[in-house]
Design a protein that fits this description.
Layout: E1 2-5, H1 9-17, E2 27-30, E3 36-38, E4 41-43, H2 45-55, H3 72-79, H4 90-104, H5 109-120, E5 125-128, E6 135-140, E7 143-146, H6 147-153, E8 160-166, H7 175-182, E9 186-189, H8 194-203, H9 207-212, E10 215-219, E11 222-223, E12 226-227, H10 232-238, H11 245-251, E13 258-262, H12 266-273, E14 278-282, H13 289-301
Parallel strand pairs: 1-2, 1-9, 2-5, 9-10, 10-13, 13-14
Antiparallel strand pairs: 3-4, 6-7, 6-8, 11-12
Helix pairs in contact: 1-13, 2-5, 4-5
The structure holds guanosine-5'-diphosphate.
Guanosine-5'-diphosphate binds next to α1 and α8.
C-alpha cells in the first residue's frame, strides 16, 4: 500500500490504515517542502509526524512532536537570545540531530530518514518525496516567506498572494520512490493540504507521470467551503482553486480515479459528480482511532 502524505490529515488516515494492514506493508511518500534548518539541524515536520506515528511516539493531541516531550533546550536557547520559529521538544530535537548527523556524514535524505525511522522503531517504509531541498515559499502582503514563517511565525495572518515551490526545478524522483510506486497498483492520497502538502509531491519532476497509470484514491480535506483545519482554504484561494471539494478534485484532475468526500458535504458530492471521477461519500472527520479505522476501511474498499 502506498500513501502520499502531509503532516496532519493523512497521518490521521494512516493511523486507521495501520489498524488494518501491517506497518511493513505500508509505504508513505512524504512532503518535504515544509522542511527547514533550525539551530543547526534539519527539521522535516511531515516526515517527523509520520515517523512518530509509526513508532508509537506521536503527540496525538497536536499531531506533531513526541508525546510528553520537554522543551528545555528550546527555552535555554530562547533565554540566550536564539529564538526558533518552531517550538521543538527535546526528544524531537534528538531526531533532528540524528538525521542531520547522517546527512553531514554524506547520507541522502532518503537514507537519513530510513535510518532514523529504524532507530525509533517505525516499521513502515517512510520516503521523502525527493532528496533535493525544496521549500514552499508563500508570497504575502508582508513579503515572501517560508511556509513555517508564514504559518507558525506569523500565525497564518498575512494576506496570501501566491505559493512557489522553490528549488523544485532540481528535484528528481529517488530510486526508492520509483521502486515503491512501480510495485503498487494503487496510490492513496490522504486528506492533506493540496497546495503545500500534496502539490509539492506531485510537482517533483516526473512524479505525475509515474503515478498517472495507477488507480488513485483521494480523500478530500475540505468539507463544504472550509478545510477541516489549517491554512488550506487561504492557500487554495490564492492559487486560484475553489475552496470546495470540487477545487481539490480539479487540482488532482487526470490523476484521481476515486474521490472520497464527506457525507455532510452535499455540495462536494454534487459538484464532483459531474467530473470524470467516481465519488464516494463517507464520514471523513477522524476524531478518534475508531473513526480513522472506519475511513481507512472505506478507502481500502476502493482499491483494485
Ligand atoms: P500539514 O502538513 O500539517 O499541513 O498537514 P496535511 O496537509 O497533511 O493536513 C492538513 C489538511 O488536513 C487540512 O487541509 C485539513 O483540512 C485536513 N484534515 C485534518 N484533519 C482532517 C480530518 O479529520 N478529515 C479530513 N477530511 N481532513 C482533515
Amino acid at each position: 500500500m502506498l500513501v502520499l502524505s502531509g503532516g496532519t490529515g493523512t497521518p490521521k488516515l494512516l493511523g486507521g490504515l495501520r489498524q488494518l494492514v501491517p506497518d511493513e506493508d505500508i509505504t508513505v511518500v512524504v512532503n518535504t517542502a515544509e522542511d527547514l534548518w533550525v539551530s543547526g539541524n534539519l527539521v522535516c515536520p511531515d516526515i517527523d509526524t509520520v515517523t512518530y506515528l509509526f513508532a508509537g511516539l506521536l503527540d496525538m493531541d497536536k499531531w506533531w512532536g513526541v508525546a510528553h516531550d520537554t522543551y528545555r533546550t528550546h527555552e535555554a536557547l530562547a533565554s540566550a537570545g536564539q529564538s526558533e520559529v518552531l517550538r521543538l521538544g527535546d526528544k524531537d530535537r534528538a531526531t533532528h540531530i540524528l538525521r542531520s548527523e547522517c546527512i553531514r556524514q554524506g547520507a541522502s535524505l532518503t537514507e537519513a530518514v530510513g535510518r532514523t525511522a529504524r532507530m525509533l522503531g517505525a516499521g513502515a517504509n517512510i520516503l521523502p518525496m525527493c532528496d533535493e531541498s525544496v521549500s514552499s515559499m508563500i508570497s504575502t502582503d508582508s513579503g515572501t516567506m517560508h511556509f513555517q514563517d508564514f504559518w507558525v511565525g506569523q500565525r497564518g495572518r498575512p494576506e496570501v498572494l501566491g505559493v512557489e515551490y522553490q528549488g523544485m526545478e532540481n528535484s528528481r524522483i529517488t530510486d526508492a520512490v520509483r521502486k515503491a510506486v512501480e510495485q503498487e497498483d494503487n496510490i492513496i492520497i490522504g486528506p492533506s493540504n493540496p497546495i503545500t502538502s500534496i502539490g509539492p509531491i506531485l510537482a517533483v519532476n516526473g512524479m505525475r507521470k509515474l503515478i498517472q497509470s495507477k488507480h488513485v484514491v483521494a480523500v478530500s480535506p475540505i468539507i463544504g467551503c472550509e478545510p477541516v483545519s489549517g491554512p488550506a482554504g487561504k492557500l487554495m484561494r490564492a492559487c486560484g482553486c475553489e475552496v470546495l471539494s470540487r477545487g481539490v478534485a480539479r487540482f488532482y484532475e487526470g490523476l484521481v480515479d476515486v474521490f472520497v468526500v464527506d457525507e455532510r458535504d452535499g455540495l462536494g458530492l454534487r459538484d464532483v459528480e459531474g467530473m470524470d471521477v467516481a465519488v464516494v461519500s463517507a464520514d471523513t472527520i477522524m476524531t478518534s482511532a475508531e473513526k480513522s479505522k472506519a475511513l481507512a476501511k472505506v478507502v481500502i474498499g476502493q482499491l483494485v
